[in-house]
Design goal:
heterodimer, A: 185 residues, alpha+beta, PH-domain like, four-stranded antiparallel beta sheet, three-stranded antiparallel beta sheet, B: 191 residues, 7 strands, elongated
C-alpha cells in the first residue's frame, strides 16, 4: 500500500496494483487513478455523433429498406450505451499512475496490460491538457515528455489521463523533476 | 555449454562485460501474430468476398462443398507454413542484458543488432496482449533519444515493422524483466 507523504493532498493514495514492484529505497508519493467522468465525456460525444449519423441515415435510406432502422436503433440506443458505460467503468478502474521519489509509473490493465515507467531526471517537458468538460469537473491529462517519446500520439497514450487536480499533479512532478536534475538545467 | 558460448558471432562483449540475462522470444507468440494477421485479412476482404460469392452463387452450387474444402485446406496449409517459418523466425531472436548494456539481436534472412547503454534509456514500456497475459509473455521497449517510440496503437499487427526491432519482443515474465531492467538503469544512474 502507498505511504502518505507530506506536501501531497489527500485522495492521491489508491492501492498499488500487484503487477508493480517498487525498488528498494524507492518511496511512493502519490497513487492516482483516472476519473470516470473523463471516459463518460468521450463516450457521450461518440454516442451523440452516432445518433447524428443515425438521423441522417433515417432520412437518406429508401422506404423499402426502412425495416433495418429498428434493429439498428435497438442496438445503438438500447444495447450500446449500457455496454459502453459499463465497460468504460472497468476500463477506467484499470488505470493507475504511481509517482515515486524516483519515477512515474503509468499502468493500464484492460484486456491487456500496458506499462510505462519514466525516471524524473529524463523528463524534458510537462504538458497539461484540459478539455471544456475537464475544466468544469477539474480533471485533465498530464503528459511527462522525454527525448524518447514522439509527440503528440505517444504522449497522448502514455500520459496521466483524466486525473483530478491536474495542475497540482503537474506541480508535484515539476518539483521532483527539479530536485532530480542537475543544477542549471 | 557456458552462456558466452551461446552468443552469436555477430555480438561481441566488451572487456569485463558480464551477461546478466539472456532472453529469447516465446514461440507461442507467433500464433497470436498469425491469428491477428488472418483476422485482419478476413476483416478487410470479407465484404468483397461475400459479394463475389453471391454473384456466382448459382453457377457454383454444384461445387459449393468443394470450394469450402479448398478454402479450409488453403488456410490450414498457410497456418502450417507460417508456424514452420515462424519457428525459425522466433529462434532467431536473442536479447542479452549485460552489466553495461542491452543487446537486441535478430537473425532471420537478414541480421539486425541494436545496442543500448542503460544510461541512455529514457522510458521503459511494457505491453501485454490478452493471450500474452494468460501465457505470461510480453514485449518490453527501452526507448532512447535515438530510437523514439511511436506507440499510438499498442498492438503488433498495427505497428510499423521497423519499430518491432527495437523491443524485447514476447519474452517470458515481462514484469520481472522490466523490474530487472529498471534496477539496472537505476544502478547505472547512481554509479
Amino acid at each position: 500500500m502507498a505511504e502518505k507523504t507530506e506536501g501531497f493532498s489527500e485522495g492521491f493514495h489508491l492501492a498499488v496494483p500487484k503487477e508493480i514492484v517498487i525498488a528498494q529505497n524507492e518511496k511512493i508519493l502519490m497513487v492516482l487513478g483516472r476519473t470516470y467522468v473523463s471516459f463518460v465525456s468521450i463516450a457521450t460525444v461518440g454516442l451523440i455523433v452516432i445518433a447524428g449519423a443515425f438521423l441522417i441515415l433515417n432520412f437518406a435510406i429508401p422506404k423499402e429498406n426502412q425495416w433495418i432502422m429498428f434493429p439498428l436503433a435497438l442496438f445503438f440506443f438500447a444495447i450500446l450505451p449500457p455496454l459502453l458505460y459499463g465497460l468504460g467503468y472497468i476500463y477506467v478502474k484499470g488505470h493507475r499512475y504511481i509517482i515515486t521519489n524516483e519515477r512515474i509509473i503509468m499502468f493500464r490493465k484492460f484486456i491487456g496490460i500496458l506499462l510505462r515507467t519514466v525516471t524524473h531526471d529524463k523528463i524534458t517537458d510537462l504538458i497539461v491538457n484540459q478539455g471544456p468538460i475537464g475544466r468544469i469537473f477539474n480533471y485533465g491529462r498530464v503528459s511527462p515528455i522525454t527525448a524518447g517519446m514522439i509527440m503528440p500520439m505517444g504522449a497522448a497514450i502514455f500520459s496521466l489521463s483524466g486525473v483530478r487536480n491536474p495542475y497540482e499533479v503537474r506541480d508535484s512532478i515539476a518539483k521532483l523533476v527539479k530536485a532530480k536534475q542537475p543544477e542549471g538545467q | 555449454m557456458t552462456v558466452e558460448e551461446t552468443i552469436p558471432p555477430q555480438v561481441s562483449l566488451l572487456q569485463d562485460e558480464k551477461i546478466i540475462m539472456r532472453l529469447q522470444r516465446r514461440y507461442a507468440s507467433i500464433f497470436t501474430s498469425i491469428l491477428s494477421f488472418i483476422a485482419t485479412g478476413l476483416l478487410i476482404s470479407l465484404g468483397s468476398a461475400i459479394r463475389e460469392l453471391a454473384q456466382y452463387a448459382q453457377s457454383m452450387e454444384a461445387y459449393f462443398w468443394l470450394f469450402i474444402y479448398v478454402i479450409i485446406i488453403v488456410f490450414a496449409c498457410f497456418f502450417a507454413l507460417m508456424a514452420f517459418v515462424g519457428y525459425f523466425y522466433v529462434r532467431g531472436h536473442l536479447y542479452i542484458l549485460t552489466n553495461r548494456r542491452i543487446i537486441l539481436f535478430r537473425k532471420f534472412i537478414t541480421i539486425s543488432v541494436r545496442e543500448i547503454a542503460y544510461s541512455e534509456i529514457t522510458d521503459i514500456i511494457m505491453n501485454q496482449g490478452p493471450i500474452a497475459r494468460i501465457l505470461n509473455y510480453g514485449s518490453i521497449t527501452p526507448l532512447s533519444p535515438g530510437v523514439r517510440g511511436f506507440y499510438a496503437v499498442p498492438y503488433p499487427y498495427m505497428r510499423r515493422s521497423t519499430y518491432s526491432r527495437v523491443e524485447l519482443k514476447d519474452v517470458n515474465q515481462p514484469l520481472k524483466v522490466m523490474n530487472e531492467l529498471f534496477t539496472l538503469v537505476r544502478f547505472h544512474k547512481s554509479a
